[in-house]
Please model this.
Amino acid sequence: MKNIVLFGPPGAGKGTQATLLKEKYQLVHISTGDVFRYNIKNETDLGLLAKKYMDEGDLVPDEVTINMLKAEVNKNADANGFIFDGFPRTESQAKALDIFLTEKGEQINGMVALEVSEDLLVARLLERGKTSGRTDDTDENKIRNRFNEYNTKTAILKDYYQAHGNYFGVNGVGSIDDITNRLAEVFDTL
Ligand code: ADP
Model:
């Protein structure tokens, strides 16, 4: 199996690229943000719980997120592999993912990160907010809070994967096609 963590700050383009790459490599794409939004739309218990965190730009608690992720993986028992998008976002999520995959005789082949500067990202997110209908994209304070969460809890995961020789940074600025090609060059080696 090819199991890849597609990584990067909010608005880096993970969702766009994952959609293209899952076709190319026949992988299952799991976006924790999309799963939460689906649950919010359908007013499930999980959705009601996640909503209050997401609306503020805070991370949803680890235990809730980890259980949800495991359930999504288990729904796809015959997958060739996974693109994890938006997960892990904390060190405890990364550790839980490693244990979970090890139990299945699997592992993360690599963390592939889209590298984009924060100023460019805030502008991109505000632009996306005009059409995405995402309440967390319309308010600059909430966007800044998402970066704060990213910088304090998520960015350290670079070190976590780098320590295992598993971190691959890719320039996330350019056309969608150019970036897909850059990512594919790394995916091919994993
Ligand atoms: P983006 O990367 O554009 O900020 P996502 O769609 O990946 O957006 O996530 C939106 C929100 O969903 C996050 O701000 C957070 O509240 C919640 N979320 C998504 N993934 C996780 C996760 N792994 N752990 C905790 N919260 C998460």
About this structure: The chain has nine helices and five strands. The chain has one domain: 2-185.
